[in-house]
Write a structure and sequence with these properties.
Number of helices: 2
Radius of gyration: 23 Å
Structural class: alpha+beta
Helix content: 10-25%
CATH class: Alpha Beta
Number of strands: 6
Length: 148
């Protein structure tokens, strides 16, 4: 009988500690919300073709990442890409893509490759699509294919 009470107490304590473990809803490292201070354009390769200016129809390939202060080149988890798929077509300045992507494409020349760091205020803000945390900064690698 003397062993039952300590054994039961130990079992209850172990169960309580197990219950205090992490939840599946706990934030994942890639979900940490971070933002660049401002829209930043980094030309990886300057193109030699026509320039993307307001009102011009362009096609691009892109890869989108969550902005991370700890990841190499601030590229956290990848959330989207059309590389190897159908290029994205839009008219620069028309508002058909997020503001930071639009502004990040301005001034590129066909054949150019650019990395654009976008604060949440120029991205999706507090109402993002699935896979992007609210108020998260983004990073896009963009290649300009055509300007019409």
């Amino acid at each position: 009988m003397n062993f039952k009470l300590p054994l039961i107490a130990a079992f209850v304590a172990a169960m309580a500690l197990t219950a205090c473990g992490g939840s599946s809803d706990a934030p994942k490292p890639q979900d940490v919300v971070a933002n660049p201070a401002a829209l930043t354009k980094i030309d990886v390769a300057v193109g030699t073709g026509a320039e993307a200016t307001a009102g011009k129809a362009v096609t691009v390939t892109y890869t989108g990442y969550l902005y991370s202060t700890t990841a190499t080149a601030n590229k956290g988890s990848q959330f989207d890409s059309n590389v190897g798929k159908t290029p994205l077509g839009f008219t620069v300045g028309s508002g058909s893509v997020i503001t930071g992507f639009d502004q990040g494409t301005l001034g590129m020349k066909v054949g150019g490759k650019r990395t654009v760091l976008i604060p949440a205020s120029l991205a999706y803000g507090s109402n993002p699509p699935s896979g992007i945390p609210a108020n998260a900064g983004l990073v896009f690698d963009i290649e300009l294919l055509t300007v019409k």
